[in-house]
Each structure stands twice: as structure tokens, then as C-alpha cells.
Amino acid sequence: PILYSYFRSSCSWRVRIALALKGISYDLVPVNLIKDGGQQFSAEFKALNPMQQVPALKIDGITLSQSLAIINYLEETHPNPRLLPQDPKKRAQVRMIADHIASGIQPLQNLSVLKQMGEKKMEWAQNCITSGFQALEQILQHTAGRYCVGDEVSMADLCLVPQVANAERFKVDMGPYPTITRINKALLELEAFKISHPSRQPDTPAELRA
């Protein structure tokens, strides 16, 4: 497998966690979203992913984009360890939380959106994350055990950790979100979350390395 990734991309990080958890080794091709006006806009990368976004994963003779689609494919082809619970209700809750983050929070504070916000980008990102986290904190109070849904790591957790890192980068006050904070802390102690961390990637700038 070949993963096209950017160290700081939260969507790429989700996929790196899934690959690590499932023990799938891969080659990483960095795509710098800032340099050269954004390497994702090159003709070569556009041929690979017409949406001009990371991640993209070449695996089993196909190329997949969209992090949740990639994670679902890995789940179906490498079922252990499970990232979707067997219980239909818990499985629905996992998907709900993953979608809440992947559709309802992350795209609104994505690089392409922030570029258009100009000087207001920090305030915009904070508002998007805060409104999303207020809802998420409430949801997690009903679903969480050690992690987002019960005591098993799931696709929801793969979305949560990178989003909390974004929140911290945009200086969002995490005080009102004790459940999110607790789960995030527990997840960051796991090896798969450590090795996939933005501070430990081949394309991480020296000053941001762990």
C-alpha cells in the first residue's frame, strides 16, 4: 500500500491510525499542502485524486480517497482488530460520531476554507470547533466508556484525536469538554496513536518533531 499524506492533515492522521492498529505496513508519499502553492494541485496528484485532497491510499489495485471510505475498506478487508462494534446500536453510534466530526466540524475549518476567511480565520475555526464540540460533549456523555463508544477503540476515536489536535492548534478552550479531553488523553497513550502522530511523520518539519 502507498499512502499519500500530509503530516498535519487530520484526515490523513485518521487513516494512519487505522493502518497502525491493523498492523498494515505501507509506503508514505508526502504531499505538502502549503509548499509550491500546494502540491495537491499538481496534475500528477489530480490524476490520483480529482478532489485534490489527502489522504489517498493505493491498495489492492485500487486508489481510494476520503478517510472514512478508506477506513471502512480496511475494516472489511482486515477485520481485526475491529473498528466497528458488532452490536448494531453501538455501530450506529460510532458512525454518528465519526460523521459528526468528519462532516460537521473538520471541513468547516479545513485549509481551503480558512484561506477564504482571511484575517478572520482563527475566529472562524474556533467558532466551528466550539459549536461542534458542544454537541459532541453531550453525545459522548451518553455513549462513552473508556473511549468514544464503550471500551473498545473505534472509528469514532480515530476521528476524535486529530480533531482535538486541531482544536488545540486553534487555541480552543478545552475546559468545557471534560469527556472529550479524558477520552483523547486515554487514546494518546496507545501505540498506534503515538506512531501515527503528526510530530512523528517523515514529512514533519524539524521544529515540530517529537
Sequence-ordered SSE layout with sheet pairings:
Elements: E1 2-5, H1 10-21, E2 27-30, H2 43-48, E3 56-59, E4 62-65, H3 67-77, H4 88-104, H5 111-117, H6 121-143, H7 155-169, H8 178-187, H9 191-195
Parallel strand pairs: 1-2
Antiparallel strand pairs: 1-3, 3-4
Helix pairs in contact: 1-3, 1-7, 4-6, 4-7, 5-6, 7-8
Give keywords:
alpha+beta; 2 domains; four-stranded mixed β-sheet; 9 helices; 8% strand; globular; Maleylacetoacetate isomerase; cytoplasm; isomerase; maleylacetoacetate isomerase activity; Thioredoxin-like_sf
Description:
It is a single chain. The protein is of the alpha+beta class and 210 residues long. It has 2 domains: 1-78, Glutaredoxin (3-Layer(aba) Sandwich); 86-191, Glutathione S-transferase Yfyf (Class Pi), Chain A, domain 2. It contains 9 helices and 4 strands; from the N terminus they run E-H-E-H-E-E-H-H-H-H-H-H-H. It has a 4-stranded mixed beta sheet with strand order 2-1-3-4, covered by helices on one side. Helix 4 (88-104) packs antiparallel against helix 6. The protein is globular. The two termini are 26 Å apart.
Tell me the helix content. Answer: 40-55%
The largest beta-sheet arranges its strands as 2-1-3-4
Main sheet properties: 4 strands, mixed
Overall 3D form: globular
State the domain count.
Answer: 2
Q: Radius of gyration over alpha carbons? A: 16 Å
- Which CATH class of the largest domain applies here? Mainly Alpha
CATH topology of the largest domain: Glutathione S-transferase Yfyf (Class Pi), Chain A, domain 2
| Helix run count | 9
**Which stretches are low in confidence, meaning pLDDT under 50 for 5 or more residues running?**
none
Please identify, by name, the CATH architecture of the largest domain.
Answer: Up-down Bundle
Distance between the termini: 26 Å
Number of DSSP strand runs:
4
Q: What is the succession of H and E elements?
A: EHEHEEHHHHHHH
Give the amount of beta strand, in percent. Answer: 5-15%
Average pLDDT, all residues: 96
Strand-pairing-aware structural class: alpha+beta
EC number: 2.5.1.18, 5.2.1.2
Protein name: Maleylacetoacetate isomerase
Subcellular location: Cytoplasm
Cofactor: glutathione
